[in-house]
Amino acid sequence: MKSFDYIRATDTGHASAEAAEGAVIIAGGTNLLDLMKLEVMTPDALVDITRLDLKQIAATDDGGLRIGTLVTNADLAAHMTVRTDYPMLSQALLAGASGQLRNKATTGGNLLQRTRCYYFYDTATPCNKRAPGTGCAAMEGATRLHAILGGSDQCIATHPSDMAVAMRALDAVVEIEASTGETRHVPLSDFYLLPGDTPQIETVLRRGDLITAVILPAPAQGVQSYTKVRDRASYAFAMVSVAGRIAMDGDRIGQASIAFGGIAPQPWRDADAEAALVGQPATRETFARAADILLADAKPAKDNAFKVPLTRRTLIATLTDLCGKAAS
Amino acid sequence: MQTRLTINGTPHDLDADARTSLLDALRNHLDLTGTKKGCDHGQCGACTVIVNGRRINACLTLACMHDGDEITTIEGLGQPGNLSPLQAAFVKHDGFQCGYCTPGQICSATAMLQEVKDGWPSHVSGNLTGAMDLTDAEIGERMSGNLCRCAAYPNIVDAIRDAAEVKA
């Protein structure tokens, strides 16, 4: 690990000011320190925000939930309001990482965790995300973990988070404090950027920005779940995951909110696929049509063509289950 | 970096480079070698310790970030002649072969049983809010952050179930 200056933030303004000077913000550190050991990331300074008062989960005035950025994945998953009103979020968190990591990993840090693309981690190989302009070793390499949607000819890395997929389906909003002291709110739908020609730029965060909270809107109608398919039963990243919410309107689908993990550079949502469900009967034909729309532009790489049928089947299974529960 | 760590009830003043992981602080600076280094990347769980009541990977955290924290290692759970219930259960059920992962397994299981007591659900719990039995599937899921290359898993699960029943 390269040496760095360690700074303990005294308040959010201090953290933002240090970050504006180039310090990297550290909270749980479970991903950042791993990347620093491998010298994939080599910050000159770390600003530690773990002593700041950003650990609360509180109801908002409009019936939603404000989750402080330092709330751990374990505490968020176990929070009774999350379990009862946003169950897909508890399920997504519990499907991620291990008990030890969930105790350390934080809400803001989870959103900002880096891809697990093997070539991003391997500093002996080219990677446009790690070293812009060097090329992408994944294009001709092992691509089981990689994207089938949203990638570019520069990068096909996936975003690894489970939590962010559920938050995407729940229409979460990210609260950000800039080094100017201004606070702004960015819907998670606008927070991540597709790789395009600049895969090293992953979010709309600017230098000196500090995520202070994630805000969930008031609980929506219907039933919800998080389904994760992976190479082993526990402690593995998603090959495909589906965070879904369905509300029925009589014998037809009234509302559908569906986000996907493991298949794209960001938690993936397709408004056209959701629109193809609403107003339709809850049949296999309806579900298959939504899957067709979702996967119409899928571009698998060498090793991950299996993700196209796997995503289709996982979506259909999830919708079958949710519509059945929503109707009863 | 000056850091005060309270380890197994005893305060220690550490003066180490900011890069020092909590794991390296324990093993290389404070001679508490019960905590083991396996992968050093948070994947194997051999370095599991309990910090302020929560199990974490000591390899994936900086010692200097734990100034003032209370840390429990395998040495603090019990000693020969005065074993913790889980330590005794691992001996009784032969919950190891080479023993390298055992300190992490036992620290992890100690905190895991408290999580169960606190009503935390897991990925395999039938529902998120109801009562749950500590089935073998629950133990396996909750302990998935601790690998055993000798694959002593059946006996580890037996030991944890036994200790949980004694505790209950």
Automatic annotation (TrEMBL), chain A:
PROSITE patterns: FAD_PCMH (PS51387)
Organism: Loktanella fryxellensis
Record keyword Transcription regulation present: no
Protein's recorded name: Xanthine dehydrogenase YagS FAD-binding subunit
GO terms for MF: FAD binding; oxidoreductase activity
UniProt-listed InterPro entries: CO_DH_flav_C (IPR005107), CO_DH_flav_C_dom_sf (IPR036683), Diverse_Substr_Oxidored (IPR051312), FAD-bd_PCMH (IPR016166), FAD-bd_PCMH-like_sf (IPR036318), FAD-bd_PCMH_sub1 (IPR016167), FAD-bd_PCMH_sub2 (IPR016169), Mopterin_DH_FAD-bd (IPR002346)
Record keywords: FAD, Flavoprotein
UniProt domain FAD-binding PCMH-type: residue ranges: 1-221
Signal peptide residue numbers: none
Keyword Flavoprotein assigned: yes
TrEMBL record, chain B:
Gene3D superfamilies the record matches: 3.10.20.30, [2Fe-2S]-binding domain
Pfam (any one): Fer2
Superkingdom: Bacteria
Domain spans labelled 2Fe-2S ferredoxin-type: 1-77
GO MF annotations in UniProt: 2 iron, 2 sulfur cluster binding; metal ion binding; oxidoreductase activity, acting on the aldehyde or oxo group of donors
Keywords of this entry: 2Fe-2S, Iron, Iron-sulfur, Metal-binding, Oxidoreductase
Entry annotated with the keyword Ribonucleoprotein: no
Name of the protein in its database record: Xanthine dehydrogenase YagT iron-sulfur-binding subunit
UniProt source species: Loktanella fryxellensis
Organism ancestry: Bacteria, Pseudomonadati, Pseudomonadota, Alphaproteobacteria, Rhodobacterales
